[in-house]
Amino acid sequence: MIINDKELGEIRLVKNARARKIIVRKKDGYLQLTHPSSVTITYIEKTIEEMRPRLISLIEKNTDKLKFSPQTEFHTYSFSLRIVESNSTSNFYTNLKDGVLSVSCPSGTDFEKPSVQNLILKHIEKALRYEANRLLPAKVKLFAQRCGFTVSDVKINKSRTRWGSCSSKKSINLSYYCMLLPEHLINHVILHELCHTVEMNHGDRFWQLLDKVTEGKSKEYTKELKAFNTLI
C-alpha cells in the first residue's frame, strides 16, 4: 500500500509479521514504513502525524543533493533538463524531445517542498531509464563486436551502488544512472563489464585486458569513476 502525502511525498507501507514497532527509512525518492501485521491504517496515519517533524528532517538530510527549480542547470549524456512553471496546468508533466526533458509545473509551485523535489526526481529517473534502454544496449553490442567479446543479454536496472555487473552467463546489467556520466566514463563502465565476460574477477589478467581495450587508461578512468558524484 502507498500513501501519497503532500508534504512527505510517497510513503510505501511494508507489513512485517516479525516487526514490533513502526520503523521509517528513507529510500531512493520515497519513505518506506515497515509495520507489524496487527496495526491498522488509522494507527499508521496517526503515527505518521506524530513523526512528521522527524520525517521532514529525514527527507531533507542529504543537503549535498541537487535542488530542482526553474534555475537548475542539469545535463545528462543524452538530454538537458528544463523546469518551467505554467499557468495552463494544475499538474506536473514532462516531455522529452530533441535532447531536452521539459518538466512543466503548476504556477506558484513551492520548490522547497520535499514532495515537489521527489516528484521532479521521479520524472527525471523515468527519462533516465527510457534513454538508458534506448542507447546503452546498442553501445554494449557495438563495443562487444569491436573488441571481440560475447554477450548473451543486456539489462537496465536502477542500482545506485553499482554502475554495472556481469553474470557468469555473460549477461550485463547497467544502472540507468550511468546516463549521468560523461560519455568516456559510460564507455569505461561498459568495457569494464565486457572484460568480465572473459575474466570474472579483478585479477591481473582482468586489468591487463581492461587496459588493452581502454588504450592504457583503465586506472585513470577507474579513479575518475570512483570520485564521480551523481548529485541526485
Essential attributes:
232 residues, alpha/beta, four-stranded mixed β-sheet, globular
The number of helices is 5
| Biggest sheet layout | 4 strands, mixed
Distance between the termini: 26 Å
Quaternary arrangement of the chains shown? single chain
| Strand element count | 10
Order of helices and strands: EEEEHEEEHEEEHHH
What's the overall geometry?
globular
What structural category do the secondary elements indicate? alpha/beta
Helical percent range?
Answer: 25-40%
State which percent range the strand residues make up. 15-25%
Q: Radius of gyration in whole Å, from Cα?
A: 21 Å
Spatial strand order of the main sheet: 1-2-4-3
Mean pLDDT: 92
- Low-confidence spans: pLDDT under 50, at least 5 residues? none
Describe this structure in words.
The protein is an alpha/beta fold and 232 residues long. Helices cover 37% and strands 23% of the residues. The chain contains five helices and ten strands, in the order E-E-E-E-H-E-E-E-H-E-E-E-H-H-H. It has helices spanning 41-59, 114-147, 183-195, 204-213, 218-226, and strands at 2-5, 9-15, 23-27, 30-35, 80-86, 93-97, 100-106, 153-157, 164-166, 171-175. The chain has a four-stranded mixed β-sheet with strand order 1-2-4-3. Helix 2 (114-147) packs across helix 3. The longest helix is centred in the middle third of the chain and has 34 residues, at 114-147. The radius of gyration is 21 Å and the shape is globular. The protein starts with a strand and ends in a 6-residue tail after the last helix. The model has no long low-confidence stretch (mean pLDDT 92).
